[in-house]
Each structure stands twice: as structure tokens, then as C-alpha cells.
Amino acid sequence: MTSKYIAHFLEQVSSWQHKLSVTDQVDNSQCFVWLSQLRHRWDVKEDDCFANICDAQFRYDKEYLGNTPRLVITPLTDRCYITLTQSLHLIMGGAPAGPAGTGKTETTKDLGRALGMMVYVFNCSEQMDYKSVGNIFKGLSQSGAWGCFDEFNRIAVEVLSVIAVQVKTIQDAIRDKKKRFNFMGENIKLIPTVGAFITMNPGYAGRAELPENLKALFRPCAMVVPDFELICEIMLVAEGFMDARLLARKFITLYSLCKELLSKQDHYDWGLRAIKSVLVVAGSLKRGDRQRPEDQVLMRALRDFNVPKIVLDDMPVFMGLISDLFPALDVPRKRDLEFEKNIKTATLQLKLQPEDGFILKVVQLQELFDVRHSVFILGNAGTGKSCVWNSLKQTNKLLGKKPVAVDLDPKSVTNDELFGIISPATREWKDGLFSVVMRDLANMTGDGPRWIVLDGDIDPMWIESLNTVMDDNKVLTLASNERITMTKTMRLLFEISNLRTATPATVSRAGILFINQHDIGWNP
User: Fold this and answer.
1) What separation in angstroms does the CA of 371 have from each of 101, 301, 354, 376, 504?
2) What pTM, to 2 d.p., does this model score?
3) In this structure, are residues 267 and 287 in contact, taking their beta carbons and an 8 Å threshold?
């Protein structure tokens, strides 16, 4: 089965699971459980498709979005759908707020998919001024699409006040049912389906408090931590696991115990993004070895995906938890001996010693690249971080893949020099170091691996600008409103000593390869 059909199958299974749970609670068509669901119907009079939820009705927009994966619908998703659709019905914006990894942006995008609506995600930063945001609203108004502004409270307060006036101008024009309206001194067309959504992580570094005139235009929606066990169970069913309920309980129990019993490390993340990554690994392992019992498949995925990030002192505790939840199971690692042989050859070519521990780290880096497009290599100076990725690059060369790696230090330049800046006087765009590198790699032909290696300490002020690149959107949004999309072969690699200053939003967006001091010492 190709990946395209697998994605479609997963979407159908998770959708049917939700529909079955809803119909079990419904006894008539006026029941609130039924009315609060997003329901599609064909109107014979209008000869068109409409979507209804509570007292709101939307015409299906027929935007072709392709075979995109859909979210697992939980009670939290339902509540968020109701809040966002009611805000659109009342001609307001939606403002989901909550901790990292609770699905604020993804829920907004998923609602857009359900209504056949194009949703553009913009990563907000301090570089955005009122003119660049105004240009975005100008485009959204004329196309009738939705704009989702990620980390909206990173924009400067003085700019936010002007944005409030821009949003109110659009909302007033929709209320007055205007076909054209005056926006920033220009008479432009208005398609009334336009919508604006803002997502925020409260209390993080570099965040501003929203002005009152802006708060009044957006309806808040609190996103709490979702039901991990339900999401895990539905995703396991979708990946083909028969005993999904028991396995989901074991999975979530392991992550809960890890959160409580393991030491508090900055790079540990036991949230939704980490859970999803393990489930993807488990699904591919199951499809690759159909004869193996399901508990062994999940145990192998949980162990092999999490071991690379566990510090040495926590390893006995973690392995003890695994053996308690999956007793009497001793499943060997899935090994590609031919690939390991190539790594040894590549290591020798780089005049390095092909120790077993070092080879394992290179294999683990490749395994992380297979499921995450952003990876942190963590470790103290001299533990071999650069040697690990250089060995993998050399291995890809031996395999004839023509890898390209661009190494840069983000802390050696200012934020404006890294991501580019618009001159306030001339409105002329000056490209930044990272934007030039990413555009060049995205435009490259061929299907070899392309890596951007960021070697230097993490600072929320620059790494938060990469949020939409590191998550499922895979898009770099610049202050000039240019959008550079990551290709399938591109990866972001961060080579750092610690994640002390990184926010939870950053940590949850990447895979972690932790190199312990004793893994590869000066005398292995």
C-alpha cells in the first residue's frame, strides 16, 4: 500500500471512530450532541453544499486541498470547532490560546479543511510591522481565505494597536455586506468568507500583552491538554493495531511515569508531538513485520525512539518501566546491517574510529530524520556531535545520494541579518542569511538529503521565528510575506550543548539525539 493510500485510510478510520461515538449518544435530530457536530448537507434549492454547526451555516468553499491528513477528533476539538465557528458567525476572529502541543494551529487548519477553505499560516515575529501585516490582510480579503497568525503576541505592542484598526475595518465591511471597501487608503474587493485567527502561548519569553481594542475583535478559546489516551487509541487503530485500547493505556502510562520518575531535563518532551512520532514509527514497524505480535512492535517503537534522548542516569529507570509494562519481552533492535557497514566505511574515511556506540548514534540520527524533519543533537563540547552528522553525510555520499549540508552559526549575526528585514524608509527587502540558504536548498534539483545545520546556542528570540518551519506546516514566513516551503528531502539540524533557554514550544517541535559524556569520550 502506498503512503498516499495509507494517509487516506488513516483519515477514514479516525473519522469513523468519532462518528460512531457521536451516533451512540444521539436519539433524535434536535439533540445538542448532534447539533454541535459539523454536519455537511446538499441543498437542492441552492444546488450547493453547506456545513452546519449549532446555529451557524457555511457554504462549502470547494478549495482543493489534496489528500491531507485529518486530526483525531476529541471532545476538546469539538469545543474548539464550536467556538471558532461561532466567532465567524458573529463576524469576529478566533483566538485559541494554551500551552505548546495542544493543537491550536492544527485545529484551525483542520476546521478549514472541513469547510473546504484555504488556510494560510503565518509565523509572527518582531520584524513584522503594520504595513507587512496590512498586506497579508489585503490578500486575504481579496481571496476570501483564512489567515492563522501563529505566536501572534510576539509582534510589538505598538504594531498590534494598528492591526486592531485593520481587523476592525475588514469586520465592519463584512457586516455592511460591502463588495468593495477602503483598506489602508486603497479601494479593494472583499470576499466575505475571509477569516482571521490568532494563536498564542501565554507567559513565554518575548511575548506582549494584547491591547484591549484587539482583544475585543477576537473570541478566545482555551486549549487545554487533550485526552492523550483517546488520541493514542484511535491512531493505533488507524495504524492497524487490533488491541489498541490496552496498548494505548500502556503507552500513556509509560509517558506519565516517565514524566514523574525520570529526572527533569530541559530536552525531555512527553507531549502530543512526541506521542504522534512514536505512533508513526510503530505503524511503519508493524507494516514491515506483520508476523510480530503487536505488544512487541509497540514496545520496540517506544524503546528505540526514546532511548536516544534519555540521559545515562535515567536509562535504568526507563528500561525498568518498559520491562514492567511489557513483561518478559526482549525484542532486539531493528537493524540494517548493510547500512551499518556503510557507516563504518564512512567513519574510517573521515579518519575516525568506528566504535559500536558511535555507529549506534549515527543510526539513531538517521532514524530520527525518518520521522522528524527537525532534530536537536545535544551534548557537551567534545562529545562528537559534529562527527555524528558528518559521518551520516559521508555515508549518504557512499550510497550515491549526493547530500548537501550548509553549516551556520545563528548567534554570530543579529535577528534581522538572519531572517531579513524591510527598510522602514524605502520598504526595500534585504534578505537574511537563513532565508537565502533555505531558498537555495528548496530550489535545488535532485532528491539527495539537504540539511541546514544550525551550530550555536538556542535563543527564543531567533528560534521562535522557525516555529512554522519546525512543525507540520514546514513553511518559513518572512517579514516580506514571502513563504519558503521545505521540500521532502530537507532537514533542520541543531547542534547545541543544552536547551536551557528554549521554550516548551521549541522542544516539542523536534526530535532529540542526546550524546552522553560516556557514549563517545576522548578515550572510548
Assistant:
1) 17, 12, 25, 13, 20
2) 0.84
3) no
